[in-house]
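User: Hello! I'm new to structural biology and keep hearing that structure can be predicted from sequence alone. Could you demonstrate with Exosome component 7? Please show me the input and the output so I can see what each looks like.

Assistant: Of course. The first part below is the input, the amino acid sequence of Exosome component 7. The second part is the output, the predicted structure written as tokens.
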Amino acid sequence: ISSISLSKKRHSSSSTSEDRVDGRSCEDYRYVEVETDVVSNTSGSARVKLGHTDILVGIKAEIGRPKLDRPNKGCLEFFVDCSANATPEFEGRGGEELGTEIANALYRVYDNERSVDLKSLCITPMEHCWILYTDVLLLQCDGNLFDAISLAIKAALLTPSKIPKVQMMEDEEGTTEIELSDDPFDCVRLNTENVPCIVTLCKIGQRHVVDATLQEKACSVASLLVSVTSKGTITCVRKIGGGSLDPESIYEMIETGKRVGKALHAPLQDILNKEESLGKSREKVGFIG
């Protein structure tokens, strides 16, 4: 397991009134722990702990048919399981409704050409493509689910891919068949350059904060979800919650989200490079296989 510090250094002259209950400033994240390759029978997997929020993501690549409106592209499918052990609010239909809400938001953020190179997932136009089935399991909830999930998805996609190379073979009758490589090292690595990270900003009073805890979330009027690439390009903006936000607040929150989101990518990439360089020698704590 590797840890990332996403906190900004604060000058001693900073006003204490700008600090939150746990001592963080408005743009500080809690410590993040990232572990990759935690589920053996997947194309990529990652577990992320953000404070006490605990997320597991497994991505499995399977061959399917392209969507009618995107005949030359692959796609992503999302399923979000809210464990009842994570918080009592997930019991019964509460967990189902939240899971659907999160999955719908993830579709908007990731299942598009701006975020993922979907054309590279196409095998034969209108007939075969790779579908990345992305399962998200919420193990523990202490606020800021979207950001933690996005870090886990990006980590799972950035790990050495296990999508096998494909060859199109033609039999004696002229029928085309798909042949997958048996070599476990003969795989395709997905271009993840533009895969965004999500920053959720919560409006509390006259200020907005990132990485809100459950207690801070309870005090929030409304939240703004901003997905940002490593180059600082915003790919999605979405308001969450029933409250309203004035135009000036929205502009300020988007600018903060853009700045903070861009800064998330480098430390995550560094830690994943470190994990990959360690290979099998890195400490394995394991999870479901």
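User: So the tokens describe the shape?

Assistant: Right, they're a compact way of writing down the 3D structure. Reading them back into a model, for example: The CA atoms of residues 131 and 168 lie 18 Å apart.
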